[in-house]
Amino acid sequence: MAVQVIIVDNDPLVGGLTLELLNDAGYSARLITESLLAQDVIRGEQPALVVLDILMPGVDGLTLLHRLKSDPATA
Fold this sequence. Notes:
The protein is an alpha/beta fold. It has helices at 12-24, 35-45, 61-70; strands at 4-8, 28-32, 49-52.
């Protein structure tokens, strides 16, 4: 089974390219473009790796990172 990766990026070009590169490398990658939805999806799917864009509308990548690290389900 491929390693699951979630990419959180509001830019469809950058996020799509990252998604394509990871999938081509054999990972099972998923792109989330809405930062406000990302924490719930990550909590539910428990990926091995999360790739975050830093500058996003809604919740920026650093804030999302702190939320994920402080949540026992995703720490």
